[in-house]
Amino acid sequence: MGEAIVVGITDAAVTRRAVDWAAQRAVERRQPLELLAIVGGAVGAVGEDSLVDAALAQAVELAEAEASRIASTGADVRTRVERGNPVAKLLDASTDAALLVIGSDYQGSGSRAHRGAHGLRIAAGAHSPVVVIPDFDVTGRAGVVVGVDGSPVSEKAVAFAAAEADRLHEPLIAVAVWTPLEVPRNMGAYPVQYLENMEKLTGEALGLSLAGLASRYPDLEIVRRVERGYPSHIINELAGTARLAVVGSHGRGALARFLLGSISQEVLARLETAAAVVR
Fold first, then answer.
1. What predicted TM-score, i.e. pTM, was given to this entire model?
2. Residues 99 and 35 in one domain
3. What is the percent of the chain with per-residue pLDDT over 70, rounded to a whole number?
């Protein structure tokens, strides 16, 4: 995995938000930034030479304009233009990237923007962590939310979220959610001991997942949340007031790498804030 942050750019309005987010991170973490524009669709696949040349020229102009726009940030930025399938090209780019950043035209609850499969496919198939930036302003929000379940990929998500929270000088909101079993009809209610035990066990698992963070990030405020319910619902609720939400991909193996877990899928489907999928 390389050091660069790669941003997939298009002529969509959300591109500016994605580039701005990535540029700030690149400067603060002293990472190179690459703006990648891809000529795809019918033109990129089978277009006539003149059409392809015109599209490539527009893509070069777009990339250079974005690079010029963020020049004042001091980011070490370079541009690249490619022709082909956008999803495949972004997945290829993630192989040598430290982070892949893409924009989504989703504008929050009530948005008419269609959240197609491309973002999910990219987040599922990427070799690097992926950050998806929605097309709305998160200024004034606070905190980095991370879903914790004790799995190996969850540990990576916690590490990513803690580093981001420390960088942003925001609290880390670590949430572990337990989902109760369905109550048998003849019981009517959950036994109190069952509820108490699940709460306790989930809290203990959360504590283990966060062990060592305080010594690594002595100035980081860590907020621990143990909740009862369905994980994606709780994470999305907390993400509604946060600057970033972080989840693990739960993909394993050559085939599983292209499948997102249900929780990460549902977090991306609602996209209450910028969301990172870590593997």
1. 0.90
2. yes
3. 87
